[in-house]
């Protein structure tokens, strides 16, 4: 099979991200016919239809989604090539070996309580590193999906859930966090309060346990995120069952009660690609994340 050139990869990514050949042409400073010709050529080279064409524009086929994800990851390696070479030279000379942009995806509580202190130390040690952080909802593909799609070099994600880590990615556990009952301080019957929940709080590590608890009512309040749930509980509006990272921002207005040794536990860890695992900045961030959770 003929190889795709970097400019062909950029065109595939631009069409996928803009949803139209014409919009991709504007983004790249090309003509629409040049974009169309390039996509047809790429499809011929890979032997698969990569985009569905229609009046509404162009959308990736399953083969196209995979091709675009790989294209992003290849283009990222081109982008960091210079920084990696300069870093190797500086390391030989005894200088700072780590520099360049570092793309990270993380869900809210992990970004706040795990990633932020790790990045603070990382950038203090390596001022040339430029973190680019996207906070994503840990629903569906979540942070791990951002890595698989080539939009992030490293993700901080929940591991071991029903979705699992996408095939071909590398992962490592950073923290095992237990769930606990959180309720207004001093309430005489916290289990009798309405249950508050949020969409991200529904992993397979909690479902089976929740079903077996006859004291847990159906959620009557669904908040946007865990921070909102914690705020509402602190105001006496209900109780919730939340993981440890979500409770690091708890105030004196709430009590936290453990759920015992049989309570649910979730794993939070990093996810990266085999090629990104070798990038100096990614390796440095993983070291900082591990030191944060020791």
Summarize the structure in words.
With 294 residues, this protein is α/β, with parallel strands linked by helices. The protein folds into three domains: 1-97, Arc Repressor Mutant, subunit A (Orthogonal Bundle); 99-175 and 268-292, 3-Layer(aba) Sandwich (D-Maltodextrin-Binding Protein, domain 2), CATH 3.40.190; 176-265, D-Maltodextrin-Binding Protein, domain 2 (3-Layer(aba) Sandwich). 41% of the residues lie in helices and 23% in strands. It contains nine helices and eleven strands. The strands form two sheets. Strands 3, 4, 5, 6, 7, 8, 9, 10 and 11 form a nine-stranded mixed β-sheet that branches. It has a two-stranded antiparallel ribbon with strand order 1-2. β7, α7 (204-211) and β8 (221-223) form a beta-alpha-beta unit. α1 (6-18) crosses α4, α2 crosses α3 (32-46) and α5 crosses α9. The longest helix is centred in the first third of the chain and has 31 residues, at 62-92. The protein is globular and about 70 Å long. It starts with 5 loop residues before the first helix and ends with a helix.
């Amino acid at each position: 099979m003929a190889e795709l050139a970097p400019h062909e990869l950029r065109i595939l990514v631009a069409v996928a991200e803009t949803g139209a050949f014409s919009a991709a042409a504007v983004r790249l400073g090309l003509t629409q016919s040049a974009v169309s010709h390039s996509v047809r050529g790429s499809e011929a080279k890979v032997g698969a239809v990569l985009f569905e064409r229609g009046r509404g524009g162009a959308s990736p086929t399953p083969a196209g989604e995979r091709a675009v994800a790989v294209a992003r990851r290849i283009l990222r390696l081109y982008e960091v090539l210079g920084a990696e070479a300069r870093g190797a030279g500086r390391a030989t000379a005894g200088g700072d070996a780590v520099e360049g942009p570092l793309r990270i995806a993380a869900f809210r509580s992990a970004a706040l309580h795990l990633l932020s202190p790790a990045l603070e130390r990382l950038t203090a040690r390596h001022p040339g590193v430029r973190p680019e952080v996207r906070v994503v909802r840990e629903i569906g593909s979540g942070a791990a999906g951002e890595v698989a799609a080539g939009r992030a070099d490293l993700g901080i994600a929940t591991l071991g859930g029903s979705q699992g880590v996408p095939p071909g990615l590398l992962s490592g556990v950073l923290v095992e966090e237990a769930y606990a009952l959180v309720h207004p301080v001093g309430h005489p019957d916290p289990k009798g309060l309405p249950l508050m929940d949020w969409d991200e709080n529904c992993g397979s590590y909690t479902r089976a346990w929740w079903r077996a608890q006859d004291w847990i009512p159906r959620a009557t309040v669904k908040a946007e995120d865990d921070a909102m749930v914690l705020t509402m509980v602190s105001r006496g509006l209900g109780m919730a069952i939340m993981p440890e990272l979500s409770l690091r921002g708890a105030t004196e207005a709430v009590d936290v009660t453990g759920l015992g040794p049989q309570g649910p536990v979730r794993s939070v860890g990093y996810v990266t690609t085999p090629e990104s695992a070798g990038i100096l900045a990614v390796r440095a961030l993983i070291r900082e994340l591990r030191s944060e959770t020791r």
